[in-house]
Specification:
Oligomer: single chain
Mean pLDDT: 87
Shape: globular
Strand content: 25-35%
Number of strands: 20
Protein name: 2-octaprenyl-6-methoxyphenyl hydroxylase
Helix content: 25-40%
Structural class: alpha+beta
Bound molecules: flavin-adenine dinucleotide
Cofactor: FAD
CATH class of one domain: Alpha Beta
Family: Belongs to the UbiH/COQ6 family.
Number of helices: 14
CATH topology of one domain: FAD/NAD(P)-binding domain
Organism: Kushneria aurantia
Low-confidence stretches: 1-9, 404-408
Radius of gyration: 22 Å
Pfam families: FAD_binding_3
């Protein structure tokens, strides 16, 4: 961020705690209001920006970006910078290892050119932070918010560099751990899946032709997302001890193990890049907002990555909060007033509950090891494959194109 873009201020309209994927997206969504209403925005990020480095949002992962999210990035004026490296997902193939039943979701089911796209997180971070560098933000990085306390007109934040900041609206986008939530007494429901996810980029002998694969196995799930040429982003989730075993294998043995789990639909797995492991849990804050406060992204909900929905859901929250702030400013209200946060909650509707429940149900369904469960799942997948209207509705919802049943 250039010196010229820095604005020195101790009281701001909006303070965003966390400049990861979600906090940075929210700051970018406020850009038109900074220009039109002179909205004063601060972003506080604890990690020195290391795109592609240790920062959780911008590591070596790739994210499946639903078509609805692509439209949000278009609205934010960022899609043209992302598009050259976005790989289209045209179809999704869902199967289970060692049992019958398969479902195929296609862009043709919903009449769009793609179901979504795959983007490297590092690119998302780079494009978002380049945008933020153009805005007159109070950008504090590296700086960590250590304490938060309610005031008459907002919240006061204590930073670890000794400075303080007061904000009319404070947005917690500080990720899954969020000690600040705890300081505020916002309870979080937490369920440990007792699974970790290993991510790596792999190369296959056969072209994926824009197809993403979800394969449920006896002890977890494998997702392969299409990337450029014959490369795919692997997300392999299973029990931590079993995952450690495959993580420790040399490349050839790892590729063999992957081949056994996935089969030969893409020919042989030829190469694998560096491997990284993430613990998986479901967590959900019991409150998404209070007057003068909103919670976004992983701080509000962290879900299993099996269906690639976490960031997509978070981005809808980002856009809803930005829209509520815009409406407030137009009506002469402040961003943090109770009515603004009530408007945010109304816009969110049941989106969060439904996506959290659906992703959890998917994990549990495929985690069942009861006798006959595999056959029942196979039948369910087969039926689902035939039930075109249900399939269309679910696909549109997962793409972020449908917020309520039957409503665009
Ligand atoms: C293996 C895996 C694969 C995934 N794949 C997909 C996918 O395909 N599609 C999809 O939609 N989603 C996916 N997700 C989910 C997605 O990655 C998350 O939704 C997203 O990273 C959440 O971003 P965030 O900004 O909320 O949190 P984070 O990325 O954790 O960022 C929080 C930021 O806040 C900063 N911070 C924390 N505390 C403070 C503080 N006190 N003061 C200042 N700064 C602070 C941190 O430094 C960090 O930069 C996946 C997740 C995993 C684990």
């Amino acid at each position: 961020m250039s010196e010229a873009a820095q604005v020195d201020m101790d009281r701001v309209d909006v303070a965003i705690v966390g400049g990861g994927l979600v906090g940075a997206s929210f700051a970018a969504a406020l850009a038109p209001l900074i220009a039109s209403h002179g909205l004063r925005v601060a972003v506080i990020e604890a990690n020195r920006l290391a795109i592609g480095g240790a920062q959780p949002s911008f590591d070596e992962r790739s994210s499946a970006i639903a078509l609805g999210s692509r439209r949000h990035f278009e609205t934010l004026g960022l899609w043209s910078a992302l598009a050259p490296r976005a790989a289209a997902i045209r179809d999704i193939d869902v199967s289970q290892r060692g049992a019958l039943g398969r479902a195929r979701l296609s862009h043709r089911d919903v009449g769009t050119e793609a179901l979504g796209h795959v983007l490297p997180n590092a690119l998302l971070g780079e494009v978002l932070h380049r945008r933020l560098a153009e805005l007159p933000l109070d950008w504090r990085c590296p700086a960590r918010v250590e304490a938060i306390a309610p005031q008459a007109r907002g919240y006061r934040l204590q930073l670890d560099d000794g400075s303080r900041l007061e904000a009319d609206l404070t947005v917690l986008a500080d990720g899954g751990r969020s000690p600040l939530k705890r300081l505020l007494g916002i309870e979080t429901r937490h369920h440990d899946y007792r699974q970790h996810a290993l991510i790596a980029n792999v190369e296959t002998a056969r072209d994926h032709q824009g197809c993403a694969f979800e394969r449920f196995t006896a002890d977890g799930a494998l997702a392969l997302l299409p990337q450029a040429e014959r490369r795919m982003a692997l997300v392999w989730s299973r029990a931590p001890q079993r995952l450690e075993v495959v993580r420790g294998l040399d490349d050839d043995a790892f590729l063999d193990a992957l081949q056994r789990e996935f089969g030969t639909r893409l020919g042989r797995f030829l190469r694998v890049g560096s491997r990284h492991v993430y613990p998986l849990a479901l967590s959900r804050a019991r409150e998404q907002s209070r007057p003068h406060l909103a919670v976004l992204g992983n701080a509000a909900h962290a879900i299993h990555p099996v269906a690639g929905q976490g960031f997509n859901l978070a981005l809808r929250g980002v856009m809803d909060l930005a829209a509520a702030v815009e409406t407030a400013l137009q009506a002469g209200r402040t961003p943090g007033e109770a009515a603004t946060l009530a408007d945010f909650e109304r816009r969110r509707g049941d989106d969060r509950d439904l996506i959290v429940q659906a992703s959890d149900a998917l994990v549990r369904l495929f985690d069942l090891r009861l006798p006959g469960a595999a056959g029942a799942r196979g039948a369910a997948l087969g039926l689902f494959n035939l039930a075109t209207p249900l399939k269309r509705s679910l696909v549109r919802r997962a793409m972020g194109l449908e917020r309520r049943a039957g409503v665009d």
